[in-house]
């Protein structure tokens, strides 16, 4: 199922849409927690703090939007309140692990430095994905005349991507080559996630 068509189906049904918002909120929250986990004990940049804070805010904002559908829906991140919960929980975790393995071989870094490298490259890959995902979602919302909007998130994610590129330029002159390999890893994991969501949405609609 083409992604825009999938989102149009999700937006049409209240409880499914609430689960989708909750799933995005879960992933933004997981991303924020991973950014914080990658922090050096003392050498923490302002940009890194900003990213963690903004990802947490996105998680809160998306969770709050659920109230526009039904305040009683998706109050937690329990598996029953997420779309494709197994694939959703594995997506970022698998990307983190696979990226760390790749970066360890590519740069031969110690434990502390590999965390920072993973923060740079994994966050970059997620920001590239967010720059594709949220505009398509906003289009589906607009077409459905939904009260829910994600335009503020789109603007901030664009800013994040520019900041990640700036940090990657400082990290390595050859970062683009390595980033392409990380993006290839992310693309495969993202497709697995979308396939799992597509299958679940099809079953929900069939039911």
Global Rg: 17 Å
Shape call: globular
- Strand portion, in percent? under 5%
Flag low-confidence runs.
Answer: none
Helical content band: over 70%
Order of helices and strands: HHHHHHH
Strand tally: 0
Q: Distance between termini? A: 18 Å
Overall mean pLDDT stands at: 94
Q: Note the main sheet.
A: none
Structural class based on helices, strands and sheet pairing: mainly alpha
Helical segment tally?
Answer: 7
Explain what this protein looks like in three dimensions:
The chain has seven helices and no strands. It is mainly α.
Q: Which helices and strands occur, and which strands form pairs?
A:
Blueprint: H1 3-12, H2 14-37, H3 46-65, H4 85-107, H5 111-143, H6 151-171, H7 175-206
Helix pairs in contact: 1-5, 2-3, 2-4, 3-6, 4-5, 4-7, 5-6, 5-7
């Amino acid at each position: 199922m083409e992604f825009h068509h999938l989102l149009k189906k999700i937006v049409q049904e209240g409880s499914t849409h609430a689960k989708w918002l909750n799933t995005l909120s879960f992933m933004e929250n997981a991303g924020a927690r991973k950014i914080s986990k990658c922090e050096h004990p003392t050498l923490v940049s302002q940009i890194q703090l900003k990213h963690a804070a903004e990802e947490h805010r996105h998680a809160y904002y998306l969770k709050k939007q659920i109230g526009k559908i039904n305040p009683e829906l998706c109050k937690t991140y329990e598996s029953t309140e997420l779309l494709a919960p197994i694939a959703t929980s594995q997506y970022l975790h698998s990307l983190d692990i696979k990226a760390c393995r790749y970066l360890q071989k590519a740069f031969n870094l110690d434990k502390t430095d590999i965390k920072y490298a993973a923060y740079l490259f994994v966050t970059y890959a997620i920001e590239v994905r967010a720059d594709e995902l949220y505009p398509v979602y906003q289009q589906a919302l607009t077409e459905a005349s939904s009260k829910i909007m994600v335009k503020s998130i789109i603007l901030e994610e664009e800013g994040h991507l520019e900041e990640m590129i700036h940090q990657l330029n400082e990290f390595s002159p050859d970062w683009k080559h390595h980033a392409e390999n990380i993006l290839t890893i992310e693309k495969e994991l993202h497709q697995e996630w979308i396939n799992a969501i597509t299958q679940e949405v099809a079953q929900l609609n069939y039911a």
